[in-house]
UniProtKB/TrEMBL annotation:
Reactions performed catalytically: alpha-D-glucose 6-phosphate = beta-D-fructose 6-phosphate
GO biological process: gluconeogenesis; glycolytic process
Family of the protein in this entry: Belongs to the archaeal-type GPI family.
Taxonomy of the source species: Bacteria, Bacillati, Bacillota, Bacilli, Lactobacillales
GO cellular component: cytoplasm
Keyword Magnesium part of the UniProt annotation: no
EC number, UniProt record: 5.3.1.9
Organism: Enterococcus avium ATCC 14025
Pathway this chain belongs to: Carbohydrate degradation; glycolysis; D-glyceraldehyde 3-phosphate and glycerone phosphate from D-glucose: step 2/4
Record GO terms (molecular function): glucose-6-phosphate isomerase activity
UniProt keywords, alphabetically: Gluconeogenesis, Glycolysis
UniProt-listed InterPro entries: G6P_isomerase_prok, RmlC-like_jellyroll, RmlC_Cupin_sf
Domain Glucose-6-phosphate isomerase prokaryote: 47-203
Protein name: glucose-6-phosphate isomerase
């Protein structure tokens, strides 16, 4: 695991995050079960880990709590199980971020992979024509930003290793599932081939041209540093992630956005 500056660890036996005394977090980790995500998979009867992923929303250093509340900014940590769900990797439900009261629009999310390897899949819309579709493969220490309004999901790219990530999001976060569920998931389904490599099957519910697979890029427009964990970047510059809460103040950066 990268040195995040928070010292949070994950107990695989209890599926709970453990916090140092200087760090706050929820007293009980929220769990997502296999039954919660089956509708977004290619195979609705697939079997896999009962607990697919574990979520701790609103964590941080105690000395930062008041500032995070004032900014309407929230940091979360999520741990994904290893293994498979049928032929598919362990993944989240696809969703779109709800309209936030802080800015009256959907909000972005800033992912940082802590351990393992992830694929952040995203598409512009969850309508029949999903627009541009990307699968961004990120390793520990790498950052991926999902823009406002895009449908997306998070995938553990490994069958043999758990995956943990931290993320900045708005405090009044919420998820819209209706359009994604109406299409039986997102526009592409990941699955493992015989060699353990992730390949993609197109969801026939969508009219999609192609899927772009890529590595994370440098987010210079948001002044994101590549060599410093994102919580520590917030500590150095408390204003840095205000764009997560107020994406309306930088709309030009979301036009023709490239993940």
């Amino acid at each position: 695991m990268i040195d995040t500056g928070l010292g949070i660890t994950f107990d695989e036996s209890s599926h709970e995050f453990i916090y140092p005394s200087s760090v706050f977090g929820p007293s009980q980790t929220e769990q997502r079960y296999l039954k919660d995500i089956l509708q977004s998979l290619a195979d609705h009867k697939a079997t896999g880990p009962e607990i697919v992923y574990s979520i701790a929303m609103d964590v941080g250093l105690e000395r930062d709590r008041a500032d995070l509340l004032k900014r309407e900014l929230l940091f979360g940590v999520v741990a994904y199980a290893k293994g498979t769900i049928g032929e598919e990797p362990v993944k989240s439900q696809g969703h779109i971020h709800s309209i936030s009261k802080a800015c009256q629009m959907s909000t972005p999310e800033v992912y940082e992979i802590w351990t393992g390897e992830a694929i952040i899949y995203m598409q512009e819309r969850a309508t029949d024509a999903p627009g541009r579709c990307y699968a961004v493969q990120a390793k520990a220490g790498e950052v991926v930003i999902v823009p406002p309004g895009w449908a997306h999901c998070t995938i553990n790219a490994s069958r043999s290793e758990k995956m943990i990530f931290g993320a900045w999001c708005v405090r009044d976060f919420g998820f819209e599932y209706e359009d994604v569920r109406a299409h039986n998931g997102l526009a592409y389904y990941p699955k493992f081939d015989a060699q353990g490599t992730i390949v993609w099957d197109q969801n026939p519910s969508y009219r999609s041209d192609k899927l772009v697979e890529k590595s994370p890029r440098e987010y210079t427009e948001f002044m994101i540093e590549s060599d410093l964990p994102i919580y520590q970047q917030y500590q150095q510059d408390k204003n840095k992630f205000d764009f997560v809460v107020r994406p309306d103040l930088c709309k030009e950066k979301w036009e023709n956005y490239l993940p």
